[in-house]
């Protein structure tokens, strides 16, 4: 498939009071045509910097970027008409109506006026289009932002936290809209912290931590690759759990004891567990693999899982070593 | 052209434009209406009353003078004054004022230019400052990534729009003053030369308005917020004008008024301003032996050059940083 978006070795360092801060450190990303691609990372990991750099708002220190085969930022003016984007939560003039807001953007982009109604209809704002933006809820403003990105009928749609402020119905509508747009051939890059949504919507993901890529690929492959081989073990007699735990620890398993079951990690052969316990007259009632979800993979890869009693700093996440798999060598 | 159309629409849709310009226009109409109301056409009856009042005043002053002469007699100093002259007591001085369009219109350009310059500064600053502060500029740049083109178009559209508003305000202002001349005074003596002089003054006024607009735009663009331009303006007024004038007077800086903005505005609009340094111990004497304190002449070219330099520097900085700085 053709790559709609390619980033290689992207670096950006901000000058800050406490010394230079590397926001992007050899970051890589590939998005293929027609996909809905999730772009994930903890706060301060470099997601927004990446998106802003792509859109020409931030100048990178080095690296290569291409959108639809055009080299950026040099050829951005010629390709920008095919890229719709919202970066973070865009603010609009509170006293303009939604129609005015979109109409001004359509004018700036030399687009026909009919597009305004089309975009408003698509995000469900047509009935409220004549109201001032200041009367809108956060979710409605977010819909307006998405409408502004869709106005160009772009080939590549970049959405930074589009579900921010949406109600559950709105989130589902947004999900359906992504699917429809993708089915129509549009490529969507979606940055979000609602990982359940990403897992449902996206074909592929890129996970970034401290400016470096920590994982990338189809969602199923990323989940599979980072599945830790965990299994859940329950016994017919819950009172035997501690005895079973001792047997399994003695056999070299790593486990976590829960109230009514044990969770074992790094298990290659689940049948071995049943056999070991049966030899001690401890009978298994449940032996099921624990499927990793995107949230747990994300927390594991970025090292941002909360630890009881500890407060994690915003910048406290995993910086992976640069390898051919996640970026170019330094 | 599409960006120009969008920016023009944005300028006139803005709440500030829709509020501030009408307020400024209302202010001009109010001032012009007061001028209209406080002048009246000289009637034969008013002239007769004025003549009578002038004669009465002349006679009263002659009486005072003769009384004074009789009291001092030969001791009166020979100051060369022959007493009150009838020609010094004009009927016009004792009549309700009438509006002489030719004499007053030229001087009143300053009122129009000053009010519109304030409005232009505010509109210029807010036009770009609000865009930065609201994030709309970032949004716009995802549509038009050529930053120089975006900022240049905004500046150009803002200046053209301010020009249009200023011409409209000048039209209203002139209309009311013309009516005052026709109905409450005179519009006589308006030769082509006088109109040419009015035209040149109006052009200088327009130049001043646009300079203020560009300064507001440039400062707000550098600070990426309207507040920076307004803060700079406030600092110039309070620190740069009030503070400096007090300081310079205390340390007796010669011709300290030359550092004040209003002096340059006046020089620009009136073609020149002559400053006199009364605090100087030195005097300057001419060939006839007349000695006076030193004087400094500030012409409209002097003031114009300073203003142009300032505007160019501020705009260059604004464009330079638009090109260089990240947008976050």
Which structural traits does this protein have?
heterodimer; A: 330 residues; alpha/beta; six-stranded mixed sheet; four-stranded antiparallel sheet; B: 328 residues; mainly alpha; globular
SS-derived structural category of chain B: mainly alpha
Low-confidence stretches of chain A: none
Write down the oligomeric state.
heterodimer
SSE ordering of chain B: HHHEHHHEHHHEEEEH
Distance between the termini of chain B: 27 Å
Query: Which structural class best describes the helix and strand composition of chain A?
Result: alpha/beta
* Strand coverage percent of chain B: 5-15%
Whole-number mean pLDDT of chain A: 85
What is the helix/strand order of chain A? EEEHEEHEHHHEHEHEEHEHEEHEH
Helices and strands, with pairings:
The complex is a heterodimer of chains A (330) and B (328).
Chain A: E1 3-14, E2 21-32, E3 36-40, H1 47-54, E4 62-67, E5 70-72, H2 76-79, E6 83-86, H3 98-109, H4 114-122, H5 138-150, E7 156-160, H6 168-183, E8 187-191, H7 195-201, E9 204-209, E10 212-218, H8 219-225, E11 231-235, H9 241-250, E12 254-257, E13 262-265, H10 270-279, E14 284-289, H11 294-302
Parallel strand pairs in A: 3-8, 3-9, 6-7, 7-8
Antiparallel strand pairs in A: 1-2, 1-4, 4-5, 9-10, 11-13, 11-14, 12-13
Chain B: H1 2-13, H2 15-37, H3 44-72, E1 99-100, H4 101-134, H5 136-141, H6 147-184, E2 185-186, H7 192-223, H8 226-250, H9 261-270, E3 272-276, E4 284-285, E5 291-292, E6 295-299, H10 300-324
Parallel strand pairs in B: 1-2
Antiparallel strand pairs in B: 3-6, 4-5
Helix pairs in contact in B: 1-6, 2-4, 2-6, 4-6, 4-7, 4-8, 6-7, 7-8, 7-9, 7-10, 9-10
């Amino acid at each position: 498939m053709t790559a709609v978006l390619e980033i290689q070795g992207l670096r950006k360092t901000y000058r800050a009071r406490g010394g230079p801060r590397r926001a992007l450190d050899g970051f890589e990303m590939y998005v293929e045509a027609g996909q809905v691609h999730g772009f994930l990372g903890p706060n301060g990991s470099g997601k927004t910097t990446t998106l802003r750099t792509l859109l020409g708002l931030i100048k990178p220190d080095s690296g290569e970027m291409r959108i639809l085969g055009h080299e950026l930022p040099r050829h951005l003016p010629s390709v920008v008409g095919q890229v719709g984007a919202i970066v973070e939560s865009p603010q609009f003039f509170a006293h303009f109506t939604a129609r005015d807001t979109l109409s001004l953007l359509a004018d700036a982009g030399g687009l026909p006026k009919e597009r305004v109604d089309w975009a408003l209809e698509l995000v469900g704002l047509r009935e409220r289009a004549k109201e001032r933006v200041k009367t809108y809820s956060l979710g409605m403003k977010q819909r307006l932002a998405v409408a502004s990105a869709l106005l160009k009928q772009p080939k590549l749609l970049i959405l930074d936290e589009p579900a921010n402020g949406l109600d559950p119905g709105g989130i589902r509508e947004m999900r359906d809209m992504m699917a429809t747009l993708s089915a129509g051939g549009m490529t969507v890059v979606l940055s979000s912290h609602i990982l359940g949504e990403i897992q449902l919507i996206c074909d592929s993901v890129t996970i970034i931590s401290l400016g470096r890529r920590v994982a990338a690929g189809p969602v199923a492959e990323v989940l599979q690759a980072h599945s830790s081989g965990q299994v859940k073990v329950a016994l017919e007699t819950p009172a035997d759990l501690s005895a079973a735990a001792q047997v399994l620890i003695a056999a070299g398993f790593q486990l976590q004891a829960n109230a009514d079951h044990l969770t074992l990690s790094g298990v290659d052969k689940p049948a071995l567990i049943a056999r070991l316990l049966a030899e001690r007259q401890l009978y298994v009632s449940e032996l099921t693999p624990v499927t990793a979800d995107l949230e747990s993979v994300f927390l594991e890869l970025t090292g941002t899982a909360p630890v009881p009693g500890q407060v994690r700093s915003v910048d406290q996440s995993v910086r992976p070593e640069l390898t051919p798999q996640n970026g170019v060598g330094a | 052209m599409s960006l120009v159309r969008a920016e023009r629409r944005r300028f006139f849709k803005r709440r500030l434009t829709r509020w501030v310009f009408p307020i400024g226009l209302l202010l001009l109409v109010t001032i012009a209406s007061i001028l209209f109301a406080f002048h009246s056409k000289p009637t034969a009856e008013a002239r007769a009353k004025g003549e009578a009042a002038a004669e009465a005043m002349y006679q009263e002053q002659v009486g005072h003078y003769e009384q004074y002469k009789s009291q001092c007699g030969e001791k009166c100093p020979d100051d060369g004054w022959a007493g009150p002259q009838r020609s010094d007591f004009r009927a016009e001085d004792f009549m309700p004022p009438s509006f002489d369009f030719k004499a007053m219109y030229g001087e009143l350009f300053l009122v129009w230019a000053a009010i519109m310059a304030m409005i232009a500064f505010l509109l210029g600053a807010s036009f770009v400052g609000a865009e930065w502060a609201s994030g709309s500029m970032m949004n716009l740049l995802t549509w038009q990534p050529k930053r120089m083109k975006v900022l240049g178009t905004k500046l150009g559209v803002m200046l053209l729009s301010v020009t249009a508003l200023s011409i409209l305000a000048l039209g209203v202002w002139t209309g009311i003053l013309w009516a005052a001349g026709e109905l409450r005074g005179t519009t006589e003596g308006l030769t082509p030369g006088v109109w040419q002089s009015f035209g040149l003054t109006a052009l200088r006024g327009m130049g001043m308005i646009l300079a203020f607009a560009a300064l507001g735009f440039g400062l707000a663009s550098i600070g990426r917020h309207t507040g920076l331009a307004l803060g700079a303006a406030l600092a110039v007024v309070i620190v740069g004008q009030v503070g400096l004038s007090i300081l310079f007077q205390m340390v007796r800086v010669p011709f300290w008024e030359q550092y004040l903005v209003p002096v340059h505005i006046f020089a620009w609009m009136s073609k020149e301003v002559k400053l006199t340094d009364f605090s100087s111990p030195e005097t300057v004497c001419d060939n006839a032996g007349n000695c006076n304190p030193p004087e400094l002449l500030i012409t409209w070219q002097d003031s114009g050059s300073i203003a142009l330099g300032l505007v160019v520097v501020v705009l260059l900085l604004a464009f330079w940083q638009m090109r260089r700085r990240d947008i976050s």
